[in-house]
Amino acid sequence: MTTDVLRPHAEQDHAAELAALAAADDRPRPPAWKLSPWAVVTYLLGGTLPDGTEITPKYVGRRRLIEVAVATLATDRALLLLGVPGTAKTWVSEHLAAAISGDSTLLVQGTAGTAEEAIRYGWNYARLIAEGPSERALVESPVLRAMRDGKLVRLEELTRIPADVQDSLITLLSEKTLPVPELNTEVQARPGFNLIATANNRDRGVNELSSALRRRFNTVVLPLPDTAEAELEIVSRRVEQLGASLRLPSEVADLAEIRRVVTVFRELRAGRTEDGRTAVKTPSGTLSTAEAISVLTSGLALAAHFGDGVLRAADVAAGIHGAVVKDPVADRAIWVEYLETVVRERDGWDDFYRAGQEILG
Ligand SMILES: Nc1ncnc2c1ncn2[C@@H]1O[C@H](COP(=O)(O)OP(=O)(O)O)[C@@H](O)[C@H]1O
Ligand SMILES: [Mg+2]
Predict the structure, then answer these.
(1) At 205, is the pLDDT very low, low, confident or very high (cuts 50, 70, 90)?
(2) Pocket-testing residue among 92, 236, 262, 289, ligand 1, by greatest number of atoms within 8 A of Cβ
(3) Predicted model pTM
């Protein structure tokens, strides 16, 4: 589908794949699901259909995690995706909603300021005053719409929401109904309704989930990529897609530059070099896979507009510097040490060493 928007929704972007899956899918579908659980997992992890259609992988990681996530959504429990930033929680939840409900747009962004209206309903005050409480004056939350339409709703960053607002989910998730006392009525969820929440496990303790709420969820923890190869695959695939959708007139000539960014991130995260021989210090920022992707995308933009159109060491060095040095004193020292002890000594990394030096000034 060629909708000219900056970022099409997953169900628009992958409409052809979803249609091919639906056509090939002869397995039982839970009520109101667009696809069977098997087809949903294939959509997420990729595969080849009997008619030869290639389904691109969206998530790279363990099949079992995705199977558990999908199976959960076919039960009366909601799904909680937990993990450090950049482990594809939001990404997976969008694709799950696209594949299961054909609609990934029902979304509540959790923040410390999220109010109950965002989860239940609010009022159009002009109407409320003019006409009194009526269906027409009711402003439905995405959760209410999902209940009414039998779809999935996504709740981002659940643990940032104040505890009393979180608790308004308990009855809704256990009774599958939302009372509207002002209209002396209720909205009962239709088949197909469920909720996918995401939470950052670094936020834990900020607003610890109440045990009553936790019991309504099955938790799936999304890990950082196990191996350098897996991370390289994720990053290169996304960088290529993003570069194309931003129509950047530049190219990644080979995987070397991407491999370098992934290596630097993994080494700093792990606190040692990949050969295990040198200990390095870990900076304060999250050097996530998502961050690596954005360093490379910015690099492509630099290469396109101020370079020769090919991604080079100098194009990624600035981005890496920015990702690593969040604290101008401690992180800078860590980065200088890494440049001097690791980058400088490494064969074939002289261009990157010089670029890094230049940015330090
Ligand atoms: N295992 C993975 N498989 C595929 N993409 C991944 C993976 N890990 C990270 N990504 C990429 O990282 C980006 C950011 O992920 P996001 O869902 O925003 O992270 P989170 O919500 O966990 O902070 C996405 O563009 C996604 O493509
Ligand atoms: Mg997220």
Answers:
(1) low
(2) 289
(3) 0.92
Q: Which residues pair with 180 in a beta bridge?
A: 185
Nearest of 289, 285, 288 to residue 238 by alpha carbon: 289
Whether 239 shows a pLDDT value over 80: the answer reads yes
pLDDT for residue 103 is more than 60: yes
CA distance 156 to 169: 14
Residue with tokens 């897609």: 241
Residue nearest to ligand 1 atom 16, measured at CA: 88
Predicted confidence (pLDDT) at residue 2 exceeds the cutoff of 90? no
- Dump the DSSP string for 121-136: EEE-HHHHHHH-S-GG
Q: Which atom of ligand 1 is the closest one to the Cα of 156?
A: 21
Query: Contact at 8 Å (CB) between 141 and 135?
Result: no
Q: Does the structural domain 10-221 have CATH classification 3.40.50.300?
A: yes
> Taking a C-beta distance cutoff of 8 angstroms, is the pair 251, 309 a contact?
yes
